[in-house]
Design a protein that fits this description.
hpI Integrase, Chain A; 3 domains; mainly alpha; two-stranded antiparallel sheet; 474 residues; globular
C-alpha cells in the first residue's frame, strides 16, 4: 500500500524516507503513490540516477536545506523520474511538461492532499530549473506547471490565561525539582543498593522536570522551531543581554530576545538539571535526553504534548502550536508584523500574515466600539435624566452610575448595596463591574458638555454590551 493515499503534511511528507543516492532504496517509490516496488532506484537509467544524485547534493550543499526537506524533495523527484522512465524517458532531456502533469495527475488520483501536491509541484519545478542550469534541459518546463493554491487554515492558538496556567504549574514543579537535585546524592556508604537506585531515579526525574519546564518556557518566549531548539548549544544563550542565537532554515542565523521567566527556567536547568544527565557524549548541547545525548525533536514534541495534557485545562498542541501562540500573543500585545517576522525567522512577510487573525471576542469587541449601529442607543428619557444633573463633575459622575444602575436587573441592583463607592466626597452605590470604567477618564474639563455627555452615552452602551441580554427597556 502506498503512502500517497494518506493526506500528507507539507513539512513532513508521507514519503521520501530513503536517501537520494546509494544506501537503502527502500520505500523509494511509495511517497508519490506510483506503485513502484521498493528497489525502484536501482532500475533508473544511469543518467537519470546521476541527475537525481546531483540534485540531492545541490539541495544539501548549495541550498543548505534541512534534512527533512532534502529527503522530501529527493523522494518526490525519484517518483517523478520513475514515472517518466515508464513513459520511455531515459535521459533528463526527455523530461517535459507532459510528464510533469501526468505524474501529478497520478498523485491526485491516488488521493494525495492539496498540500502534498503543492509540495511535489514545487519539487518538480526546482528540479527542472536545476537541470536547465546544468544544461540537461534545453528549456525549463517547470514554469508551465500550474501552482496549486492550498487552503490555509488558522493555526491553533492557546489563550494567554491557558499559557499562564501551564507555565505556572511547570515553574512550581521546577522549584520542587531544584530542591531535590540540590540536596546532594546523599550518604552512599550508608544507603543500600535499592535506596541508591531510588535516589538516582528521583534525581533523574527532577532533572527531567527542570528540562521540560525550560523547554516550554523557551518555546513560548522565543517562538522558535523545534529543530532550532534541539540544535541550540549552551553558549548561544546570552543571559546578560537576554538573547539567544538561533540557526534557522538555510543555515540563517538570527538573534531572538528571551524573557526573564524563560531565562530563569533555563538557568535552573543548567545549574541543577543538566549536570545530572550530562555525559561525555553530551558536548555543548543545551538540552539533553535522559541518556545524555542531544535532545531529539521527537522527544521535544512528546514533552510538549505530555506537559500540556497533564494540566488538564488546555487543548493539546505541539511545539509548532506554541510557536503560533507566541506569535499571536506578540501581535495582540502590539508588536508590529515586521518585528514578529524577524523573531520567527520568516523570509517573507506573507508567511507571518497568518498570525494576524484575531479571536472572536476581540473581533466582536472591536465591532462594538467601531460600528455606529452595533449597539442600541441610550434611551432619551434616561439620557435626559443623566443630563439633568450637570452642576459639577462629581454630580456628573454620580449621574453616570445612575444611568448604569437603571440598566441593571433587580438582582444586580440588590447586590449594589454591598458595593458602595465614594466619589468626590459623596457616597453612591454602583452596580458591579463599574470599576472597569473609571468615570474620571470619561469627563474632561477641555471637552464641551455635549461632548462629555456623548461619552457618557458611549460608556453606558459599552456597559450594556458587557451585560448580554439586558435590553434598554429592562
Amino acid at each position: 500500500m502506498t503512502d500517497a493515499g494518506k493526506p500528507a503534511r507539507a513539512a513532513k511528507p508521507a514519503g521520501a524516507r530513503a536517501p537520494a543516492s546509494g544506501g537503502k532504496p527502500a520505500r523509494s517509490g511509495k511517497p508519490a503513490g506510483s506503485g513502484a516496488p521498493a528497489g525502484a532506484e536501482e532500475r533508473l537509467p544511469p543518467r537519470l540516477a546521476a541527475a537525481l544524485a546531483g540534485f540531492e547534493r545541490y539541495l544539501r550543499a548549495e541550498r543548505s536545506l534541512s534534512p527533512h526537506t532534502v529527503r522530501a524533495y529527493t523522494g518526490d523527484i525519484r517518483s517523478l523520474l520513475e514515472h517518466a522512465c515508464r513513459d520511455g524517458v531515459q535521459t533528463p532531456d526527455g523530461l517535459g511538461v507532459a510528464q510533469l502533469r501526468s505524474w501529478l495527475a497520478v498523485q491526485h488520483g491516488s488521493g494525495a492532499a492539496r498540500a502534498t501536491l503543492a509540495r511535489r509541484g514545487a519539487a518538480a519545478r526546482t528540479f527542472t530549473a536545476f537541470a536547465h542550469r546544468r544544461g540537461w534541459l534545453a528549456t525549463d518546463p517547470g514554469p508551465q506547471l500550474g501552482t496549486l493554491k492550498t487552503r490555509r487554515t488558522l493555526p491553533h492558538v492557546l489563550r494567554q490565561d491557558e499559557m499562564e496556567a501551564v507555565l505556572a504549574e511547570l515553574d512550581a514543579a521546577g522549584r520542587r525539582a531544584e530542591q531535590v537535585t540540590g540536596a546532594g546524592p546523599g550518604n552512599g556508604s550508608a544507603a543500600s543498593g535499592a535506596q541508591a537506585g531510588a535516589q538516582a531515579e528521583e534525581r533523574t526525574a527532577a532533572a527531567v522536570a527542570l528540562r521540560d519546564a525550560a523547554v516550554l518556557e523557551l518555546f513560548y518566549a522565543t517562538g522558535i522551531r523545534v529543530s532550532e531548539l534541539c540544535g541550540l548549544d549552551a553558549g548561544r544563550l546570552d543571559q546578560d543581554r537576554r538573547t539567544v542565537r538561533v540557526m534557522g532554515k538555510g543555515d540563517k542565523e538570527r538573534t531572538v530576545p528571551v524573557g526573564v521567566p524563560a531565562l530563569r527556567a533555563v538557568a535552573r536547568w543548567l545549574a541543577a538539571g543538566r549536570p545530572e544527565l550530562a555525559t561525555r557524549a553530551s558536548g555543548p548541547a543545551l538540552f539533553l535526553g535522559v541518556r545524555g545525548g542531544r535532545l531529539d525533536p521527537r522527544t521535544a514534541r512528546r514533552i510538549v504534548h505530555e506537559r500540556l495534557r497533564e494540566t488538564g485545562t488546555v487543548r493539546d498542541t505541539g511545539p509548532h502550536g506554541l510557536r503560533h501562540t507566541a506569535a499571536t500573543h506578540l501581535l495582540e500585545g502590539g508588536a508590529d508584523l515586521r518585528s514578529v517576522q524577524e523573531i520567527l525567522g520568516h523570509s517573507s512577510p506573507a508567511t507571518t500574515q497568518i498570525y494576524t487573525h484575531v479571536s472572536i471576542e476581540r473581533l466582536k469587541s472591536s465591532y462594538r466600539q467601531a460600528h455606529p449601529r452595533a449597539l442600541p442607543s441610550l434611551p432619551a428619557r434616561k439620557t435626559a435624566r443623566a443630563c439633568s444633573i450637570h452642576g459639577d463633575p462629581n454630580g456628573r459622575r454620580i449621574a453616570v452610575y445612575k444611568v448604569y444602575f437603571s440598566f441593571a436587573r433587580p438582582a444586580a441592583r440588590r447586590s449594589c448595596a454591598s458595593t458602595p463607592r465614594r466619589l468626590g466626597g459623596k457616597c453612591t452605590r454602583s452596580p458591579p463591574r463599574l470599576a472597569q470604567i473609571r468615570t474620571k477618564s470619561i469627563f474632561s474639563p477641555r471637552t464641551s458638555a455635549a461632548g462629555n455627555w456623548a461619552m457618557v452615552n458611549c460608556a453606558a452602551r459599552r456597559y450594556m454590551a458587557h451585560r448580554v441580554g439586558h435590553s434598554p427597556g429592562r
